[in-house]
Write a structure and sequence with these properties.
The complex is a heterotrimer of chains A (228), B (245) and C (351). Chain A is an all-alpha fold and 228 residues long. Chain A has one domain: MetI-like (MetI-like fold, Orthogonal Bundle). Chain A is built from eleven helices and no strands. Chain B is globular, with a radius of gyration of 20 Å. Chain B has helices at 2-14, 32-45, 58-66, 79-87, 135-147, 163-172, 182-187, 219-228, 231-239, and strands spanning 22-28, 50-56, 73-75, 97-102, 104-108, 126-129, 157-160, 177-181, 192-196, 205-211. Chain B has two domains: 21-100 and 206-239, Periplasmic binding protein-like II (D-Maltodextrin-Binding Protein, domain 2, 3-Layer(aba) Sandwich); 104-196, Periplasmic binding protein-like II (D-Maltodextrin-Binding Protein, domain 2). Chain A binds chain C through residues 118, 120-121, 123-132, 134, 138-139, 142-143, 225-228, and chain C through 42, 45-47, 72-74, 76-80, 82, 84-90, 99-100, 103-104, 130-131, 138, 145-146, 149, 155.
Chain lengths: 228, 245, 351
């Protein structure tokens, strides 16, 4: 099994993009999950549908919409271009593509974690003198850690495999945006390089297995702290 | 109920593939307009013949044929992929012919002054077809190496899956420009032809074509093959900017 | 403590409408399940907002739809003890206890953790994880946690319903002592008349989402006598027994009671059902029941088809229950002298 320098670049890039996308999405995912589980407001259904949309849309469609939004002629793209911040065809675009595609998975997991918290624990916290943000930080956050961990691993794994949206909005730039899936695709389009793709595929499998093992171990550890 | 079943059955049998008179073509992406026009014209003259066309990067197309895709005629954008199939005895190499020639150019929407290979170093992003499977990208890489700028261009190169995607990137303006064929640049609307790549930096762009071994005995296929070498084909090729000698 | 509440809350098809003004230190809220007690607790503590109305605690406005006041729960200083202890699973026993204390303003911190831990005997539990506690221990910690928040009012929402009998009557003394020791009034919510008798001084009865009446535990027990499976429960606090032929002789005022299920020494609480008392017009010569008390009828009351006879045996009061026809047959009136026979096994030790 041999890996070319481009392959190694692809592996580092994949890990970097997946980690960044997960870290970026976490605070938003947590906030949105909290809103959906603990707050009542008009139009909640609309929010839920919007959040889940990337789950049902083909990733290329998501990539296309992101391109429309962030490209030179897009709403946000125009502003970014004027301030000299390029997004399209940079690794930032790869991060945004992964974050968008994985977001619903993250929110879903955190939601499940939060929903399993007994409402009376929160009532107890409030009646003991904790304001809503205090309760959020000292009770809700620690008790939804399992959901957060599960959501993060899921999102990280999804980001590692993200292809459709990434290739549209970040392009296939070796060393800059060519993540593992894109590199394998490159190899696979050429009949003479199919065996090279295998090495990279093995690496991809190994990383996924490691992520899943970590996820299981963390899950077991946190289970011991679950509610009375 | 019986009627619906009969109708379904009829539809299924009618949509069975490999009809008599249906030719399957795998053609390099840059020949898309030419082959579309020529096949349409051929069908008008020979109503029994229809075409299934697959346009894409020559490397990928060769791979598909290798894996058993039922193709009758293969037209590549370089010799490499035709030789690849010749070696594997999947095409009728003895009767392979050269369809046309082309040249490599750099086209884009960038406002920066770009008139030569060295000017490329001023740019942020340059689109090329992925050299592993797209001849246009392979030609571009070769010219970079020969011009001595390939290392400096690392990190600027956006890989496209075929020469048409390359053109699209150039048109959209998300890259400064892309390496496409002159014939593609002629079709561009927003991207301008900025400079022609000096021929000494890369081998001539050739379009070898051959019938697959499977189709070598097919009368329809042979007839169309001859048609592509005829006067009408030549005039259409010229119209789109291809060179014939 | 004075609580004034005039509020309304609609939840689905259930409407809670309460208008009450109660004063006291130990108030009970009595009602069957589904009567709206839980909703009331949520309204008073601020966890649920009434549709309209007002709530005043010691003349401070907690809620008023007219004045647009709605004090958030953390500012009301009303701590809740839940039916299920609801200890925070990710915190230690100590952290649980101090949760409210830490969030209490310095000037309000009248109760010191050390004092409370001693009173509730929590010291041995401090080192144990929250998951290694028994039901009763959890409830004690929950009580400690609520009290350490230095609340103005303790809301106890059926805190004993999830515990078995032995545990229940072990916790009750803690609940009362904590309230007395630290001077914290409480609202005790329950559907058990026995618990009301032990915990409350005044009772607010909730039926079908509205206030039915305000009464005393004794009155409530009397009115419910006929429907209750065990009639009127006489509660006797006895101490210092003397063993006697396998039975325990407890002094009760100037009387002596022979009880089979006694303790070798110390204080015990016994329950005696009004239905376990047989009344004789005249002294029965020989009787198997070991307890025979000569008493005077001080009061008679009616409860459905039964009659409650309030008797005084050398100053000690208790209630016996008989059917109306029996009352007529024996021609019982206030002032009559009767003999009450009680078996030694009729006394049930509660704790």
């Amino acid at each position: 099994m041999t890996l070319t320098p481009e392959d190694i670049a692809a592996i580092w890039l994949s890990l970097k993009v997946a980690l960044t996308a997960t870290a970026l999405a976490l605070p938003f995912g947590f906030a949105i999950a909290w809103l959906i589980v603990f707050r009542r407001f008009r139009g909640k259904v609309v929010l839920e549908v919007l959040i889940n949309l990337p789950l049902t849309l083909p990733p290329v469609v998501i990539g296309f919409f992101l391109l429309l939004l962030l490209g030179k002629n897009g709403w946000i793209g125009k502003l970014l271009d004027a301030s000299g911040i390029p997004i399209i065809f940079t690794w930032k675009a790869a991060v945004i593509a992964s974050a968008t595609v994985g977001f619903p998975l993250l929110v879903r997991s955190i939601r499940l974690g939060m929903e399993s918290i007994d409402q009376q624990l929160i009532e107890a916290s409030r009646s003991l003198g904790a304001a809503w943000y205090d309760t959020l930080a000292t009770i809700i956050l620690p008790l939804s850690l399992r959901g957060i961990m599960a959501g993060s691993s899921l999102m990280f794994a999804r980001s590692l495999g993200e292809f459709g949206a990434t290739i549209i909005v970040a392009g296939n730039i070796p060393g800059i945006t060519q993540t593992i899936p894109l590199a394998i695709y490159d190899y696979a389009s050429s009949p003479s390089s199919v065996t090279m793709a295998l090495s990279l595929c093995m690496v991809s499998v190994i990383i996924s297995v490691v992520v899943l093992i970590v996820h299981e171990l963390l899950g077991k550890k946190l289970h011991r702290r679950s509610a009375l | 109920m019986r009627k619906t079943l009969l109708l379904l059955f009829a539809l299924l049998t009618i949509s069975m593939p490999a009809m008599a008179g249906e030719l399957s073509l795998s053609v390099a992406a840059s020949l898309k307009e030419v082959i579309n026009e020529l096949s349409a014209s051929y069908t008008k003259k020979n109503p029994g013949s229809t075409f299934v066309k697959n346009f894409g990067p020559s490397g990928t197309l060769a791979g598909q044929i290798e894996n058993g895709a039922p193709v009758d005629l293969f037209i590549a954008a370089n010799n490499q992929w035709m030789d690849y199939l010749k070696e594997k005895k999947l095409v009728d190499g003895a009767n392979a012919k050269m369809l046309a020639y082309n040249s490599l150019v750099f086209a884009g929407t960038t406002t920066k002054k770009v008139a030569s290979m060295n000017d490329l170093l001023k740019l942020d992003k340059i689109a090329i077809g992925s050299p592993k499977s797209v001849p246009a990208g392979e030609y571009a890489m070769t010219s970079f190496k020969n011009a001595g700028i390939d290392n400096q261009l690392a990190g600027k190169l956006v890989m496209a899956k075929d020469v048409r995607e390359c053109l699209m990137y150039a048109e959209l303006g998300e890259v400064d420009g892309g390496f496409v064929y002159r014939t593609d640049a002629l079709l561009a609307q927003k991207a301008k032809l900025l400079f022609v790549v000096p021929q000494k930096l890369y081998p001539r762009v050739t379009y070898p074509m051959a019938l697959t071994v499977k189709a070598a005995q097919n009368k329809e296929a042979k007839a169309f093959y001859l048609f592509l070498q005829g006067a009408e084909a030549k005039s259409v090729l010229r119209k789109y900017g291809f060179v014939l000698k | 403590m004075n609580l004034r509440i005039d509020a309304e809350k609609k939840q689905g098809s259930f409407l809670l409408q309460v208008n009450a003004d109660v004063s006291g230190e130990r108030i009970g809220i009595f009602g069957r399940s589904g009567s709206g007690k839980s909703t009331l607790v949520h309204l008073i503590s601020g966890l649920l907002e009434p549709d309209r109305g007002e709530i005043y605690l010691n003349d401070e406005c907690l809620f008023s739809s007219a004045k647009c006041v709605n004090l958030s729960p953390e500012r009301r200083r009303i701590a809740i003890v839940f039916q299920q202890a609801m200890l925070f699973p990710h915190l230690s026993v100590k952290a649980n206890l101090l949760y409210g204390y830490r969030r209490c303003r310095a000037e309000n911190r009248n109760i010191k953790p050390e004092t409370l831990i001693t009173i509730l005997k929590l010291q041995p539990l401090m080192q144990r994880g929250v998951h290694n506690l028994s039901g009763g221990e959890k409830q004690r910690v929950a009580l400690g946690r609520a009290v350490l928040a230095n609340p103005r009012l303790l809301l106890m929402d059926e805190p004993l319903s999830a515990l078995d009998d032995t545990l229940r009557f072990q916790i009750i003394p803690y609940l009362k002592s904590v309230s007395e020791e630290f001077g914290i009034p409480y609202l005790f919510i329950s559907h058990s008349i026995l618990e009301m008798q032990l915990m409350a001084e005044r009772i607010v009865v909730i039926k079908n989402g509205s206030l039915a009446e305000t009464t005393t535990p004794d009155q409530l027990a009397r009115t419910s006598m006929a429907q209750s499976p065990k009639g009127y429960l006489n509660l006797l606090h006895l101490a210092d027994p003397v063993q006697n032929n396998g039975l325990y002789a407890y002094p009760w005022g100037h009387n002596t009671l022979l009880i089979s299920d006694g303790e070798a020494k110390g204080k015990s609480l016994f329950e005696l059902s009004s239905r376990d008392i047989i009344l004789f017009k005249q002294h029965p010569e020989a009787i198997s029941a070991r307890n025979l008390l000569e008493c005077t009828v001080t009061e008679l009351f009616r409860s459905d088809v039964r009659v409650g006879v309030v008797l005084s045996a050398n100053g000690e009061k208790f209630v016996a229950e008989i059917v109306r026809s029996a009352a007529e047959d024996l021609n019982i009136t206030t002032g009559s002298t009767l003999f009450a026979a009680i078996k030694a096994s009729s006394f049930r030790k509660l704790g």
